[in-house]
Structure formats: C-alpha cells, structure tokens
Write a structure and sequence with these properties.
This protein is an alpha+beta fold. The chain contains four helices and nine strands; from the N terminus they run H-H-H-H-E-E-E-E-E-E-E-E-E. About 20% of the residues lie in helices and about 30% in strands. Strands 1, 3, 6, 7 and 9 form a five-stranded antiparallel sheet that branches. A hairpin with a 5-residue loop joins strand 4 and strand 5.
Length: about 210
C-alpha cells in the first residue's frame, strides 16, 4: 500500500525534530548579590597629623574662685535685735539687748550699766576712747509713750552718730558700731524727745 511509506516517513521526521530541539536551561536561581566594593567598605584614610575629635568634651573647671554668698541685709549687727521687744524694767531689758548684740558680734561691755530718769533735759555719760576703737550704745526707757534720742559726741563736741528714731529703745548706731577718730573723752548724750521715765544704757566695745 502507499500509506505505509508515508506513515513511516512522518514518524522519522517527527523523531528528527525532537532530537534537534535544545533542552530548557536549568533554573540557576536569583543572581548572587554583588560584593561591596573594597573602596566603600574600607575606612577612609586620615591625613597624617590630623587629630580625632573627642566624642564629648568634659567641661573645663574655672580657675577663678566662686564669689562668696552675699551677707543678709544688715548682717548680724541688725538681725541681733530684729525681734527684740522691751518687756520688763529698763535695766533688765538693756541687759538682755546687750547680750543679744554684744558677744555674738565680738563685743564686750564697757563699764557698768548706767541708769537715770529720761526728760527733755539732756543726760550725759562720758567714757575714754582711743582713735580707731569702735563702740555701740544701747538704751531703753520705761513707758510706752517715751521717745528716747541718743547721740555719741567726740571730745570736741562733734556728733559722730545719732539715733533720733521714734521709739524708746535706740541702738547707736543701728547698722553697726561707731569707730572714733581721735583720742579723748567721748560723751553719750540722751534725752526724752517725748514722755519720760526711768532709763538704762550700756556702752559696748570691740576688743
């Protein structure tokens, strides 16, 4: 028959076509990541002599000493009598006031406590002093209506300090001791600007 040769020829051609087709390539997977370049991964070269900055610079301590704390307004010369109030006789009150302000500030009492009667007429108490010495006067009068004034005068009569405040227990000087400028006999002059009655005074001195 004629069909057999044709059938055989077609089979041969099909086999030949199968043998000539290239086989599919094997799956190689995703491409490997590229290696980082040595230039980018290596640390950059630093010029010779260049210094490495510190991560955190420590604060430099100041060579100058800190300023001392300011003293309270008036200091101990004022605060010593800040809460004082007369509550008893003139003598007892002036003793208490002197002890509050004298020893804590390095002062000592000069002579005895002086007592008298305050009136508009001046009362004087004298004491000897040398130039450069410093003093403080405390005086208290009895009677709530009494206004006592006190002055410290030099040997020539000049007023070195005065307390003319409206009260019955003046402190001379209110802010601190009074330092005299000449040798000789100094005078405490006291008088009642208003009212009157028993009073007591003390003079204290810095050593």
């Amino acid at each position: 028959m004629i069909l057999r040769p044709l059938l055989v020829g077609g089979l041969v051609a099909a086999i030949a076509g199968c043998r000539g087709r290239p086989a599919p390539a094997a799956d190689a997977g995703p491409p490997a990541p590229a290696a980082a370049s040595a230039a980018s991964s290596a640390p950059s070269a630093r010029p010779a002599g260049a210094s490495t900055p510190a991560a955190s610079a420590a604060p430099v301590a100041s060579a100058e000493p800190a300023d001392p704390e300011p003293e309270p307004i008036g200091g101990p010369w004022v605060t010593c009598y800040g809460r004082f109030r007369p509550t008893s006789t003139a003598r007892r009150d002036v003793l208490r006031l002197g002890l509050l302000c004298g020893p804590p500030n390095g002062m000592r009492k000069l002579g005895d406590t002086v007592e008298g009667t305050a009136s508009p007429e001046p009362f004087e108490h004298a004491f000897d002093a040398k130039a450069g010495q410093c003093f403080r006067v405390f005086a208290i009068a009895e009677g709530s209506e009494t206004d006592l004034d006190v002055e410290l005068r030099s040997p020539t009569g000049n007023v070195l300090a005065a307390d003319h405040g409206d009260d019955r227990w003046p402190v001379l000087a209110p802010e601190g001791p009074v330092c005299v400028r000449e040798d000789g006999r100094h005078t405490v002059r006291l008088r009642a600007h208003a009212g009157g009655g028993p009073f007591a005074l003390e003079v204290w001195k810095l050593p």
